[in-house]
Design goal:
- The model is unreliable at about 1-20 (pLDDT under 50).
- By secondary structure, the chain is mainly β.
- The chain has two helices and 41 strands.
- The strands form five sheets. The chain has a 23-stranded parallel sheet that branches.
- Helix content is about 5%, strand content about 50%.
- Strand 19 (about 195-200) and strand 20 form a beta hairpin.
- The protein is globular, with a radius of gyration of 22 Å.
Length: about 375
């Protein structure tokens, strides 16, 4: 039985002999095999191409670095476990992905294991990474966020909004729990701008947008800060069918960054999520044109829902298209059921067939908010 040979970049460099037999590697569909003592897979060195499958041998290992893995649109390079789950020890970043595109990281390599990657630290994808799918990954006990997917703008113009867009990120069917003081998922750069000193000159730089983001069917429990936080979303992004329990338990910002789902951008669909027990708002929605549909929020310490615009509008029309809320239920919330600051919009903020149960206040607004309401209910049980 001929062993599978691999020539990849190790922590110290060199080639290794995989522990998987050729039959085992073939059963997993492997093109490249990474034994448990290998640290880094460099797609440029390995000459990986679209449609290749990179297998990480099951078992315990240290952190993993994936870089320069560039597949093709419609033919991504797949990174998967093979022969059991890949289990990483506690480390700040258990998997870090750099300068990669058209890539899927999936824990579906062994039918006997639901989450084929079981990580003791953050899964991060940055440094100009785009077009990445992440599924069937478990993250437990990360010191900060479970998933961190973004490229911070620097003095390198390649990282600026006008030159880079993080597109087609798909995050689904993952399990994230017991994060330290950070988010369950931190996707996109939060701030509107960043001021740096570049070559001795103060320079304002703008972070990249998120296009085509899909976050669905994930389970997140016992989270230090926000459950799911997504920023800079362009129209077409979706956050759907996620379960979030016990969010905002140890927020690094103490009195904020402790919400169930936080969205910032334009025309994002937030639908069919279940948000249970947390210290902050159940939903916090910034931006224009969002559709927030059929979500259930139970036991929010703050408002059931809070919405506003960023940057804060000061004149008529600056708030953009009014957000739309329909079929949502807010149950046993600590403050107001629906707290609405989204003002100076070109169309009304729409509230239709929402239910608020056992809140201190039903609906609250500020000057400049224009509402269109239909069929909303306030109950006490």
């Amino acid at each position: 039985m001929k062993p599978v040979l691999l020539c990849a970049v190790l922590l110290l460099g060199g080639c290794g002999v995989a522990a998987l037999s050729s039959e085992e590697a073939a059963a997993c569909g492997c093109t490249h095999v990474m034994p448990s003592n290998h640290y880094r897979f460099d797609g440029a060195v390995a000459k990986a191409k679209g449609g290749d499958v990179v297998c990480f041998e099951g078992g315990s290992r240290g952190p993993i670095n994936i870089r320069n893995v560039v597949g093709e649109e419609g033919a991504p390079i797949v990174v998967r476990n093979c022969k059991g789950a890949v289990v990483t020890t506690q480390y700040h970043y258990s998997i870090s992905v750099e300068r990669s595109r058209y890539l899927r990281i999936t824990g579906t390599g062994d039918a006997a294991v639901e989450y084929g990657f079981q990580l003791g630290g953050t899964l991060g994808a940055g440094t100009m990474t785009s077009d990445i799918e992440i599924d069937h990954v478990e993250v437990k006990g990360a010191s900060f966020a479970g998933l961190m997917l973004k490229t911070d703008p620097t003095c390198d113009p390649a990282t600026w909004k006008e030159n880079f867009e993080m597109a087609n990120v798909k995050v689904h069917d993952n399990y994230i729990h017991a994060t330290g003081d950070g988010e369950g998922m931190y996707i996109g750069y939060t701030a509107y701008e960043r001021t740096l000193e570049c070559n001795g000159v103060p320079t304002v730089v703008y972070p990249h947008d998120m296009r085509g983001l899909v976050v669905e069917n994930n389970v997140l429990k016992d989270l230090g800060a926000d459950g799911i936080q997504v920023s800079k979303c362009l129209p077409g992004c979706r956050v759907e069918n996620n379960l979030i329990e016990k969010y905002g338990q140890r927020p690094f910002a103490h009195s904020w960054q402790n919400n169930g789902i936080q969205v910032n951008g334009e025309a994002v669909v937030v639908a069919h999520n279940r948000v249970v027990q947390g210290s902050g708002n159940g939903l916090i929605i910034f931006g224009s044109g969002h559709k927030v549909l059929s979500n259930t929020v139970i036991g929010a310490g703050g408002n059931g829902m809070f919405c506003d615009s960023r940057p804060v509008p000061t004149a008529a029309g600056e708030g953009g298209v009014g957000q739309h809320y329909e079929g949502n239920t807010f149950y046993n919330v600590g403050l107001t059921g629906m707290h609405i600051y989204h003002r100076h919009t070109t169309t009304p903020v729409t509230l239709a067939y929402n239910t608020v149960v056992n809140a201190k206040k039903f609906i609250d607004t500020i000057p400049g908010v224009v509402l269109s309401q239909k069929g909303n209910r306030e109950l006490f049980v």
